[in-house]
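Subject: two folds for Thursday's group meeting

Dear M.,

Sorry for the delay on this. The cluster queue was jammed most of the week, so I only got both jobs back this morning. I'm pasting them in the order they finished. Each block is the input sequence followed by the predicted structure tokens. Could you check whether the formatting survives your parser before we put anything on slides? The first protein is the one we discussed after the seminar.
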Amino acid sequence: MRFDILTLFPEMFAGPFSDSIIKKARENDIIDINLIDIRDYTTDKHNTADDYPYGGGAGMVLKVEPIYYALQDITNDFNQDSTNILLTPRGEQLDQTMVKELSAEKRLILICGHYEGVDERIRNNFVDKEVSIGDYVLTGGEIPAMVLVDAVARMLPDVLGDDESKKNDSFYNGILDYPHYTRPREFKGMSVPEILLSGNHQLIDRWRKKEALKRTYLVRPDLLKNTKLTEDQQELLREIKQEIEGVNDNE
């Protein structure tokens, strides 16, 4: 999968994309990340990528020309298929459903907004999707682009050491992940739940499913409203409600 990232600050990506899982995915040619400096496509000797907004007001706006010429160049005069994404606070909020959808694409072009935003002509004519990573404002779209690349890359085959592990990630199936423990068995009076040491994989699996549902019910109950639970999960959720609140849905 190919990611093209249009940015004013390509050096910001050096650390996040040069370590850990993303580094390995790049080395194994699973993903290709191409950083494009927007200033390389400016049309004046000062490499001006932004200007004052028409109509007045505070801040600066990213100019239409350099982004247009960058897109034209990397898509061979707009003749290559890609999904163009503008990272912006007003975009659709990134979630695991969107991540799965984007992981099916062959090429994503990410445009990192900055200052007061980008010239609206870019947004209206050359953007397929606007994406936000939350209801807050960052200095620019670089960090959201890093988040999106990391989240999408995890969904690709062979990026993780065990492809099954991502299926237990929080949000992958609409609920939070279950608790995890490793050695030592006891540390300063804090012990690992005995069931995880039992060797009974059927009971362990049930415990994990129940704990995942309990954590979701207590911390993010909103997720359960939009998640289609299996019959087993529904039964476990009834148990959880009975234990916590004394609520019996069968009454």
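Second protein, same layout:
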Amino acid sequence: MKRVLVVDDEPQIVRALRINLRARQFEVHTAATGTEALRAAARYPPDVVLLDLGLPDLDGVEVIEGLRGWTDAPIIVLSGRSDATEKVEALDAGADDYVTKPFGMDELLARMRAVTRRVQAPGAEPRVTLGAATVDLAARRVTRSENGTTADVRLTPTEWHLIEVLLRHPGKLLSQRQLLTEVWGPGYADAGGNLRLYMAQLRRKLEPDPSRPRYLLTEPGMGYRYQPGT
């Protein structure tokens, strides 16, 4: 059973989530404030956190930062705020995904499955298939199999670094700032053009149809995610 911590000060939402998640065999703990959330997380370490940003005592970003001080449990932000800046701030603080209210349970459960898939054994080197392309991070090799033949696909060092970061966080929404800082360094945090260029190159090399990506997805105004195939 997966343990979920629901942090929200709206009783109707908490009640609905509690009922729906328990019906699906989740162990559910709840908190109405940021302080309660941090205490509950310490007492009952969660497998997933569902967190509203608009809490009465602490800002949701502060809660994310508090949790990230000691746990890697996936955090999905649930919020009625539509400002992309606030979403990016939450992602940069350590949130894994962002769902805007109102939302459907099927969508939320799919997001929960996606973010929990990224949790791997320490040192695990994923071998990932994206349609006809296979990325072997341990061997640092990409191959593409089509029409009964297999050929190597060459990636530049920067393309390798970028695809590694994405593939090691399946289902996780990574902000542009996170990716730029990780791949290019702190001095490139605002160089969005670099990121768009290299994402386009990776799609041409790895996606079945680069014009309609299935695996390397863009979240407009926020960032990018690697979405595993089903």
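Two things I noticed about the second structure. The mean pLDDT is 88. The first helix runs from residue 11 to 23.

Cheers,
T.
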